[in-house]
Amino acid sequence: MSEKKHRVSRRQFLNYTLTGVGGFMAAGMLMPMVRFAVDPVLKPSAEQDLVQVVSVDEITSEPQRFDFKIDQIDAWYESVEPRSAWVYKDESGKIIALSPVCKHLGCVVDWNTDPANENMFFCPCHYGLYEKDGTNVPGTPPIAPLDVFIHEVKDGYLYLGKAKPRGGA
Ligand code: FES
């Protein structure tokens, strides 16, 4: 039976030590750079501020489309993005602000433009229909209600935030 030698030579010891120390130092230098590069991606997106859209006096019981702009920050990129909302007051006077983005494939819905289905939101792309409150009509392509904008009334003006799925967080 031969006895195996497990002794480490001086050259091997130096190689292991220098490799280990070099790797440790390289990691110490690279980690802050990697962290800096990916940091905006890792951060949860900040809740978007509410934007002033229209005077409450202009809001009627008939849905009207109002356009506005939001500041959007996607990781490193900041931009000003156009948005639209269908806004009206329901029977109790409550303000409803619906996203115009169809929940089928994202076309823009219109109010009361389909002569066969009056007083409904209509998506001309694939004949999608929604009730006035944004509920999707069964049997048409959309499979979910229109998103609802977070909103607030301040000093007589309507402010809108992010559009969220109905009942969503
Ligand atoms: S995108 Fe609206 S019905 Fe298809």
Quick summary of this structure?
With 169 residues, this protein is an alpha+beta fold. The protein has one helix at 10-42; strands at 51-55, 64-74, 77-89, 95-98, 110-111, 121-123, 128-130, 148-154, 157-164.
How many domain modules?
2
- Which structural class best describes the helix and strand composition? alpha+beta
CATH topology of the largest domain: Rieske Iron-sulfur Protein
The helix content, as a percent range, equals 10-25%
Q: Please outline the major beta sheet.
A: 3 strands, antiparallel
Query: Largest sheet, order of strands side by side?
Result: 1-9-8
Assess the beta-strand content as a share of residues.
25-35%
| Total helical elements | 1
Overall average residue pLDDT: 88
> What sort of overall outline do the alpha carbons produce when their principal axes are compared?
elongated
Question: Termini distance?
Answer: 72 Å
Instruction: List the secondary-structure elements in sequence, H or E.
Output: HEEEEEEEEE
Question: What is the CATH architecture term of the largest domain?
Answer: 3-layer Sandwich
Using the CA coordinates, give the radius of gyration: 29 Å
Q: Uncertain runs with pLDDT below 50, 5 residues or more? A: none
Determine the CATH superfamily of the largest domain.
Answer: Rieske [2Fe-2S] iron-sulphur domain
List bound small molecules.
FE2/S2 (inorganic) cluster
At the first level of CATH, the class of the largest domain is Mainly Beta
Instruction: Let me know the number of strands.
Output: 9
